[in-house]
Design a protein that fits this description.
mainly alpha, Serine Threonine Protein Phosphatase 5, Tetratricopeptide repeat
Protein backbone atom coordinates (compact mmCIF):
# COMPACT_ATOMS: atom_id res chain seq x y z
CA UNK A 1 0.00 0.00 0.00
CA UNK A 2 2.77 2.46 0.92
CA UNK A 3 4.62 1.79 -2.35
CA UNK A 4 1.40 2.51 -4.25
CA UNK A 5 1.06 5.81 -2.44
CA UNK A 6 4.64 6.70 -3.36
CA UNK A 7 3.83 5.79 -6.98
CA UNK A 8 1.01 8.34 -6.87
CA UNK A 9 3.27 10.91 -5.24
CA UNK A 10 5.89 10.31 -7.95
CA UNK A 11 3.30 11.22 -10.57
CA UNK A 12 2.44 14.43 -8.69
CA UNK A 13 5.90 15.44 -7.46
CA UNK A 14 8.58 13.37 -9.16
CA UNK A 15 11.68 14.25 -7.17
CA UNK A 16 14.75 12.20 -6.29
CA UNK A 17 13.89 12.48 -2.57
CA UNK A 18 10.44 11.00 -3.17
CA UNK A 19 12.03 8.23 -5.23
CA UNK A 20 14.50 7.50 -2.41
CA UNK A 21 11.64 7.27 0.07
CA UNK A 22 9.79 5.01 -2.38
CA UNK A 23 12.88 2.76 -2.46
CA UNK A 24 12.78 2.45 1.33
CA UNK A 25 9.12 1.41 1.15
CA UNK A 26 9.96 -1.04 -1.63
CA UNK A 27 12.69 -2.62 0.48
CA UNK A 28 10.06 -3.64 2.99
CA UNK A 29 7.28 -4.58 0.59
CA UNK A 30 8.95 -5.92 -2.55
CA UNK A 31 12.58 -6.69 -1.87
CA UNK A 32 15.95 -5.36 -0.85
CA UNK A 33 17.65 -5.74 -4.23
CA UNK A 34 14.88 -3.89 -6.07
CA UNK A 35 15.25 -1.05 -3.57
CA UNK A 36 19.06 -1.02 -3.90
CA UNK A 37 18.76 -0.84 -7.68
CA UNK A 38 16.63 2.31 -7.33
CA UNK A 39 19.01 3.82 -4.76
CA UNK A 40 21.97 3.12 -7.03
CA UNK A 41 20.18 4.79 -9.93
CA UNK A 42 19.88 7.94 -7.77
CA UNK A 43 23.58 8.20 -6.87
CA UNK A 44 24.29 10.68 -9.67
CA UNK A 45 21.18 12.79 -9.17
CA UNK A 46 22.36 16.39 -8.70
CA UNK A 47 19.69 17.03 -6.04
CA UNK A 48 21.11 14.22 -3.90
CA UNK A 49 24.83 14.93 -4.23
CA UNK A 50 24.98 16.26 -0.63
CA UNK A 51 21.91 14.46 0.73
CA UNK A 52 23.18 12.36 3.62
CA UNK A 53 20.16 10.04 3.62
CA UNK A 54 21.16 8.56 0.25
CA UNK A 55 24.34 6.86 1.50
CA UNK A 56 22.70 5.95 4.80
CA UNK A 57 19.82 4.20 3.02
CA UNK A 58 22.33 2.50 0.75
CA UNK A 59 24.36 1.36 3.77
CA UNK A 60 21.27 -0.09 5.41
CA UNK A 61 20.25 -1.99 2.28
CA UNK A 62 23.79 -3.29 1.71
CA UNK A 63 23.98 -4.47 5.32
CA UNK A 64 20.67 -6.32 5.01
CA UNK A 65 21.83 -7.89 1.75
CA UNK A 66 25.11 -9.01 3.34
CA UNK A 67 27.37 -6.76 1.22
CA UNK A 68 29.60 -5.93 4.15
CA UNK A 69 32.51 -4.33 2.30
CA UNK A 70 30.70 -1.13 1.35
CA UNK A 71 28.57 -0.56 4.44
CA UNK A 72 31.11 1.27 6.61
CA UNK A 73 32.16 3.52 3.71
CA UNK A 74 28.54 4.48 3.05
CA UNK A 75 27.93 5.35 6.71
CA UNK A 76 31.13 7.44 6.66
CA UNK A 77 29.90 9.24 3.53
CA UNK A 78 26.60 9.94 5.27
CA UNK A 79 28.43 11.29 8.32
CA UNK A 80 30.60 13.55 6.17
CA UNK A 81 27.52 14.97 4.43
CA UNK A 82 25.45 15.46 7.60
CA UNK A 83 24.82 19.08 8.47
CA UNK A 84 24.83 18.76 12.25
CA UNK A 85 26.88 17.06 14.94
CA UNK A 86 24.12 14.73 16.14
CA UNK A 87 23.63 13.25 12.70
CA UNK A 88 27.39 12.93 12.15
CA UNK A 89 27.64 11.11 15.48
CA UNK A 90 24.69 8.86 14.60
CA UNK A 91 26.12 7.79 11.25
CA UNK A 92 29.60 7.36 12.71
CA UNK A 93 28.18 5.17 15.46
CA UNK A 94 26.14 3.17 12.95
CA UNK A 95 29.28 2.40 10.96
CA UNK A 96 31.18 1.46 14.11
CA UNK A 97 28.36 -0.77 15.39
CA UNK A 98 28.11 -2.47 12.03
CA UNK A 99 31.83 -3.31 12.28
CA UNK A 100 31.35 -4.73 15.78
CA UNK A 101 28.39 -6.85 14.68
CA UNK A 102 30.35 -8.06 11.65
CA UNK A 103 33.29 -9.09 13.85
CA UNK A 104 31.05 -10.91 16.31
CA UNK A 105 29.07 -12.78 13.67
Amino acid sequence: MIVSLYDVLMRIAPTPVVELNRAVAMSMAIGLQAALDIVDSLRDAPALKRYHWLPSVRADLLAKLGSRDEVRAEFERAAAMASNAREREFFGTAGFLFDIIYIIS
